[in-house]
Design brief:
There is one protein chain. By secondary structure, the protein is α/β, with parallel strands linked by helices. It has a single domain, classed as Glutaredoxin, CATH 3.40.30.10. The protein is built from seven helices and five strands. A five-stranded mixed β-sheet has the order 1-3-2-4-5, sandwiched between helices. The longest helix has 16 residues. The radius of gyration is 14 Å and the shape is globular. The N and C termini lie far apart (30 Å).
Length: 142
Amino acid sequence: MPALILEHDNHPAILAAMAATPWTVACLCAGWCGTCTSYRASFDALADKHPDLTFVWIDIEDQADVVGDLDIENFPTLLLQQGATVSFLGTVLPDPQVAERLIRSHTALSAAELARIAAGTPEQRAWQEQARLGDLIRAARV
């Protein structure tokens, strides 16, 4: 199944999908970005390869009400989240093998390792306050 696309009218469905799997992998891109357009098929292929995870494609301009305060420096930016714990938020090379290794390494982490990452640096601690995708989606619906 290809990645879900965050739209203005499907927030409840995205939240339900996120609740149904232990991990969410979100790609934050922009419709005008050629790299993002090219990367989209690879991201969908990753979603097909990992049906036990929720993959969400987010156009940061179309969904500015959701992700507007996140500091997206370049594309593609991936967000990996287990439950309410954000374990990664950053730009990656637009290479599906890089994303695959990142996903595998994070989904293999124990609860203790995830907690250590979440509290590791000021930036990682800030992710827990500012980048939880479910919280961002719920806040945009208000």
